[in-house]
């Protein structure tokens, strides 16, 4: 029974991974691609690692997969924010259909 | 012309999905493990997602697109290592996954610093 639950978790993770990479290919802008791909792929990979933990059980590999899940959930948003900030500082243009750019207004207010 | 390109890519994607359904990835060393058909198909789907990421690396208009795609590719490889841990029964694949996650995080931070145009000690 616990193996079936783990396989269901792995299936959910696979679906999130594929849709996140589809968003990475199809969306028009750096920031849109970043927000689609990072959130979907982080949740999908955490779900795959949790399914691995459920199937393998309380062994060394299971505890390492839990550790890897916690580490990934902590560090992937940090990397995404750093990439978005670097892209905006480097002057990558927004998509022409974008309606608001609060970070640019804040930088103009500082200067 | 756009309709023609969509038609070609649709045929390509449907062919890949049918190939995934009818023929899972064979494991040469362990042919009699449980759930082997399901996990072989899972490996195929993760490799398909990695190919989509590599398309974005190949044809990114700016450097930031390529950096995003490299970051996402690192996270996908961690999932691939986790599935290989189940399907082959060898526990050192998840060690490769942990090391790859660490390296991917450091790589993303360093590349964003490079993109911003500052030194690494700022």
What characteristics describe this protein?
heterodimer; A: 111 residues; mainly alpha; elongated; B: 122 residues; 4 helices; 0% strand; flat
Describe the structure.
The complex is a heterodimer of chains A (111) and B (122). Helices cover 83% and strands 0% of the residues of chain A. Chain A is mostly helical. The model of chain A has no long low-confidence stretch (mean pLDDT 87). Chain B has a domain at 35-116. In chain B, helix 2 (36-58) packs antiparallel against helix 3 (63-88) and helix 3 packs antiparallel against helix 4. The mean pLDDT of chain B is 82. Chains A and B meet through helix 1, helix 2 and helix 3 of A and helix 2, helix 3 and helix 4 of B.
Helix/strand order of chain A: HHHH
Protein structure class of chain A: mainly alpha
Radius of gyration of chain A: 18 Å
How many β strands of chain B by DSSP? 0
**How far do the termini of chain A sit from each other?**
61 Å
Q: Helicity of chain A, in percent?
A: over 70%
Mean residue pLDDT of chain B: 82
- Main sheet overview of chain B: none
Please indicate the percent range of residues of chain A in DSSP E strands (runs of 2 or more): under 5%
Distance between the termini of chain B: 49 Å
Please mark out the parts of chain B with pLDDT under 50 across 5 or more consecutive residues, or reply none: none
What is the mean predicted local confidence, pLDDT of chain A? Answer: 87
């Amino acid at each position: 029974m616990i193996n079936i639950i783990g396989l269901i978790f792995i299936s959910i993770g696979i679906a999130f991974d594929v849709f996140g990479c589809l968003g990475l290919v199809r969306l028009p802008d750096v920031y849109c691609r970043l927000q689609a791909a990072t959130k979907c792929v982080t949740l999908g990979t955490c779900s795959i690692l949790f399914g691995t933990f459920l199937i393998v059980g309380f062994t060394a590999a299971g505890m390492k997969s839990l550790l890897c899940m916690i580490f990934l959930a902590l560090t992937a948003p940090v990397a995404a924010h750093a990439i978005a900030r670097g892209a905006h500082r480097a002057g990558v243009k927004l998509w022409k259909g974008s309606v608001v750019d609060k970070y640019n207004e804040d930088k103009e207010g500082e200067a | 012309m756009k309709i023609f390109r969509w038609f070609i890519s649709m045929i390509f994607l449907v062919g890949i999905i049918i190939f995934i359904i009818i023929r899972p990835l064979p494991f040469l060393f362990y042919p009699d493990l449980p759930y082997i058909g399901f996990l072989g198909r899972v490996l195929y789907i993760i490799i398909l997602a990695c190919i989509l990421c590599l398309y974005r690396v190949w044809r990114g208009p700016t450097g930031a697109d390529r950096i995003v795609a490299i970051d996402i590719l690192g996270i996908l490889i961690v999932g691939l290592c986790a599935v290989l841990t189940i399907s082959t029964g060898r526990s050192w694949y998840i060690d490769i996954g942990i090391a790859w996650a660490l390296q991917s995080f450091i790589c993303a931070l360093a590349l964003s610093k490079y993109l911003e145009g500052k030194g690494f000690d700022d």
